């Protein structure tokens, strides 16, 4: 990685040029966000004698990886640190869910789907998508995100065991309650005077959400185990 960074340093871009390039894929990216990622040790742009930052191709790819992992997998920076360390070591990292990642997948452009494309790729019948929307599991839209695709594919698998969206209406209600709990915790961070307060709040919320999910799964499986015993 050090050699790659050295080779790409000559193609250094200013922070404004990086924003122009990366915002095509991540329109919400700001200079504050870039500095936050640097503060957290996720990117290390070169400092020129003038004091300005110079971003190499390696830095830009790194930024895309971090933003993709946040957007598509809702991972906190603590977990992303570990994933990037695995990449640096030449290994294929694994998500908390057990899914194996590749550098290519972390650099891929976000995929969007029309309704017909969503149904075709997921293999879901129209009725299943409609039921998922009614249950509040998927938000109706003209164009659907990869997140909607993941949910619908999971629902297709669940439907094979007779589990339908109507059985999961409580999930949305519980998710909203959990979201309120997280908001109460992270809002003071977001309202801080720090220029990266909002970014820290978002990352803290992701970290808390992962831990809430671990507890939820553990409690659910304990209940299942007890009923089987």
Automatic annotation (TrEMBL):
InterPro entries: DNA-bd_dom_put_sf (IPR009061), MerR-type_HTH_dom (IPR000551), MerR_fam (IPR047057). GO terms for molecular function: DNA binding; DNA-binding transcription factor activity. Residues 34-86 form the HTH merR-type domain. Keywords: DNA-binding. The keyword DNA-binding applies. SMART domains: HTH_MERR. The keyword RNA-binding does not apply. PANTHER family: HTH MERR-TYPE DOMAIN-CONTAINING PROTEIN (PTHR30204:SF89), REDOX-CYCLING DRUG-SENSING TRANSCRIPTIONAL ACTIVATOR SOXR (PTHR30204). This is Unannotated protein.
């Amino acid at each position: 990685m050090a050699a790659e960074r050295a080779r790409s340093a000559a193609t250094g871009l200013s922070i404004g040029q990086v924003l122009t390039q990366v915002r095509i894929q991540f329109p919400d990216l700001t200079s504050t966000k870039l500095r936050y990622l640097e503060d957290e040790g996720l990117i290390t742009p070169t400092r020129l004698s003038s004091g300005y930052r110079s971003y190499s191709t390696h830095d830009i790819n790194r930024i895309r990886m971090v933003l993709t992992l946040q957007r598509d997998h809702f991972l906190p920076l603590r977990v992303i640190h570990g994933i990037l360390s695995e990449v640096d070591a030449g290994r294929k990292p694994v998500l908390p869910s057990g899914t194996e990642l590749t550098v290519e997948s972390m650099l891929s452009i976000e995929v969007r789907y029309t309704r017909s494309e969503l149904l075709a790729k997921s293999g879901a019948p129209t009725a299943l998508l409609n039921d998922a929307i009614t249950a509040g599991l998927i938000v109706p839209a003209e164009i659907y995100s990869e997140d909607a695709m993941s949910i619908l594919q999971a629902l297709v698998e669940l439907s094979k065991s007779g589990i339908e969206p109507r059985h999961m209406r409580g999930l949305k209600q519980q998710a909203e309650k959990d979201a309120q709990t997280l908001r109460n915790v992270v809002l003071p961070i977001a309202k801080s005077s720090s220029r990266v307060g909002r970014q820290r709040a978002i990352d803290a919320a992701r970290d808390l959400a992962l831990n809430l999910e671990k507890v939820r799964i553990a409690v659910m499986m304990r209940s299942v185990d007890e009923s089987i015993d």
